[in-house]
Each structure stands twice: as structure tokens, then as C-alpha cells.
Design a protein that fits this description.
Blueprint (H helix, E strand, L loop, with lengths): L1 H30 L5 E8 L20 H15 L5 E7 L3 H12 L9 H12 L6 E4 L6 H10 L3 H24 L1 H8 L2 H8 L1 H6 L9 H23 L6 E7 L3 H9 L4 E4 L2 H4 L1
Parallel strand pairs: 1-4, 1-5, 2-3, 2-4
Helix pairs in contact: 2-4, 6-7, 10-11
Length: about 280
């Protein structure tokens, strides 16, 4: 009888201890931060130069041997991130056409054109054996030239003159960097300073354009903000697992706004490309 009581006592004690351990483990699990999908955003300049944009950097001949080697080095660096998805700034409604081109490239039926999407995204996706590329861009009409023309017609150029001077300095700065290599410019454009400086450029320039009842600058900026928020939504919707590692390639002036949204997200985490480009 005594043995049975002792065995029952120790069994009860063991049960209590195991219950406490289980509850403690559950509490620790609740306190642990949830895993977030990793989103590496590469801010890029355009590989296509028309000469019409006075402040755009001229990348030279993208298909030259030198630049092809530089692009391949960039691709090799991005592959180290091990993305399982690649998102690009092309319009979402072009996804069928985009992936038809990508499939032709995979089947050796297409040469890469001069766009950033094909030169970088196609190569990275192929190296990672991805079956498709996801466009996350949205079609919205934004014309800085029209806004500047309005400012000129209404004698409001004084509002944007300092910004235009900044833009000229940016162009000269980028021109010097790209003389060294594409990598030099990528390393700068994706620094925290450049992301914030270039990302806020439109707000610094255009907010004051207009007059009571004619919110030209504000309307432009509202559309720009909406565009980036919709792109973020596309990124969020197409990132389906907390284990996803997504490479997002967008123009450099959009990185600030997308990063801001990702930093406030409970499901996504921003990854700087500098970790892999250095």
C-alpha cells in the first residue's frame, strides 16, 4: 500500500513538472518573433538611354563585353541570396507576355534585350531554376515634364529650382560612378543615404506646385504614393510563405517607399542588397 502511494505521488509530481515544462515552452514559442519572408530590393538605373531625360545616367552599350561581364558579376552576387521568387517592376497585366519571353530564353530561343528585366531578372531566375517571373508593377500615368511645364507657366519654378539643381548634381555624380563600373553605381544607389535622398526627391520638388483649388503637385504625389502602395500590395499578395526569399528589382527612386511599407509589415522583412554586392 505504501509503495503504491509513493508511486502515485511521484507520478503526480512528474505530471506537474511535465505540464509546467510544456506551458513554459508554449510561452517561449509565443514570445519568439514570427518568421518573415525575406525581401531583397535592388534599386536600379535604366539600361535604356534615350537622351530625352537630362538627369538620367547614360549606361553606355549594355551589350558590350565589359558591361556584360559587369552584369554577370552582379547576377552572381544576387544568386548568393538564393531567391525562390523574382519580382520585377513590369506591369502585372503583362505577366503572360513577360513569361513567354522568359520561357523562350530558357529554351535558347531568345537573346536577352537591353532591359534590366531581361539582363538581370531573367539570368537570376534561370540560375535558380525558377519557372516564372512575377511582375508587380501597376500602370499609372505620371508626367514630371507636364508638372514642370505647369510650374513654368504659372511662375512657380522657384519652388523646384533647388531640386532641379540637386538632380543635375545627382546626374553628374552617377556619371562619374558608372565610369568605374555598373557595380560602383549600384553600391551607391542602394545605400541608406541614396535610398532616402532619391526616394524623397519628388516630394521635395513638387509639393508646393499649384494653388488653392488646383492641387497639381499634391495630386501628382498622391498618384506616386498610390503607385508604390499598390506595388507593395502585389509583393505582399505574391509572397505566399514566411520561408520565401524574394528578389525585387525596381527603379531606385521607388525603393524608399517600398522599404517603408515592408518595415511596417508583419509578414515581410527588408534585406539590403549591399550584403551581397560587396
Amino acid at each position: 500500500m505504501l509503495r503504491k502511494n509513493i508511486r502515485s505521488y511521484f507520478t503526480h509530481i512528474l505530471f506537474v513538472l511535465l505540464s509546467c515544462f510544456a506551458l513554459n515552452s508554449m510561452a517561449l514559442a509565443d514570445d519568439a518573433p514570427a518568421q518573415k519572408a525575406q525581401i531583397l530590393i535592388l534599386g536600379t538605373f535604366s539600361y535604356q538611354y534615350s537622351g530625352r531625360d537630362l538627369f538620367a545616367v547614360n549606361p553606355g552599350d549594355v551589350l558590350s563585353q565589359q558591361h556584360q561581364q559587369e552584369i554577370q558579376q552582379l547576377v552572381t552576387a544576387l544568386i548568393k541570396f538564393h531567391p525562390n521568387k523574382v519580382f520585377v517592376a513590369d506591369h502585372y497585366n503583362r505577366r503572360v507576355m513577360l513569361n513567354k519571353s522568359y520561357t523562350n530564353y530558357l529554351n535558347a530561343n531568345k537573346k536577352l534585350d537591353k532591359t534590366v528585366v531581361e539582363q538581370i531578372a531573367f539570368r537570376v531566375a534561370k540560375a535558380m531554376q525558377l519557372k516564372k517571373i512575377d511582375p508587380v508593377g501597376v500602370p499609372m500615368q505620371l508626367s514630371s515634364a507636364r508638372l514642370i511645364a505647369y510650374a513654368k507657366a504659372h511662375k512657380q519654378l522657384n519652388h523646384i529650382k533647388p531640386c532641379l539643381e540637386d538632380a543635375r548634381e545627382y546626374a553628374l555624380h552617377d556619371k562619374e560612378l558608372i565610369k568605374n563600373s555598373y557595380k560602383s553605381l549600384y553600391l551607391y544607389l542602394n545605400t541608406e543615404r541614396a535610398i532616402e535622398e532619391r526616394g524623397n526627391f519628388k516630394y521635395r520638388c513638387y509639393a508646393a506646385i499649384g494653388k488653392p483649388g488646383a492641387f497639381r503637385g499634391a495630386d501628382y504625389l498622391s498618384t506616386w504614393y498610390k503607385k508604390n502602395k499598390r506595388i507593395f500590395s502585389n509583393i505582399l499578395w505574391q509572397t505566399q510563405s514566411p520561408k520565401d526569399r524574394v528578389l525585387v528589382i525596381v527603379p531606385y527612386d521607388q525603393v524608399y517607399w517600398l522599404k517603408q511599407s515592408i518595415d511596417n509589415s508583419t509578414k515581410l522583412e527588408y534585406v539590403s542588397p549591399l550584403k551581397y554586392l560587396h
